[in-house]
């Protein structure tokens, strides 16, 4: 039997060898650091100093129509990572209010990343703003209507007119959702099932315009007093805002008053901006995107775009130079 010693081939480390190993380690660390620095610089130079045509192509990759629009939607689906909620009818309690969520839901549905929902609130006397809004927005609108007591039946009748008898009724059916709410002690005159059946039943539109005006004005052309005004009820503005916003099916919402009309083509411009890598940091936490609002006199047409607005300002036809504040909000 032969025994082997574990230290038979051991050779003591010379001081020069230790110094050489230390130098090699320092060189390796330096080389590794330089490689990392050069890689980062390479990426930065590639991003900021690419040829002009390539840079424009990168900026416009989400701006064109057709195939690039599909690419935009795929990118939004990835970066938003949201879930599309149901738009089914629900009867809920919200504080001391009953809420009929999706009393009417639009015929067309959207994925949560696909567009932006305009969310607003009102009572039935402001429903004449729905069609002008839709003509400019051309996307989902979520409207919370305060409808206590007799105002509930009037609200349903005017919704029926918008859905069946208005010249732009197809636009309303495609995009508008209506959510009605009222306090526990101010119930409608009839069971809710009656109004649910009524809003989906075909309407006789032969005298629809006369019926619309009759609901809003008396024979003396005075405004018909609402149930809310007759009973001195406080308009629950924040309840309406929250109902409209929480009923939106999209990730982004434009929370606004019903008399504020948005700029046409705003949605594609905003979504393309969000899809750009430079703005993705705003998606890491709940964000608010602020929009300026201009007020014009009643007899002045609503400007279509910024050049039109600037022209009105130069002519001095703007009703108020004061900028209000409106916000495009992320639902998160």
From TrEMBL:
<keyword id="KW-0472">Membrane</keyword>
<keyword id="KW-1133">Transmembrane helix</keyword>
<dbReference type="Pfam" id="PF13896">
    <property type="entry name" value="Glyco_transf_49"/>
</dbReference>
<feature type="transmembrane region" description="Helical">
    <location>
        <begin position="30"/>
        <end position="49"/>
    </location>
</feature>
<protein>
    <submittedName>
        <fullName>Uncharacterized protein</fullName>
    </submittedName>
</protein>
<keyword id="KW-0812">Transmembrane</keyword>
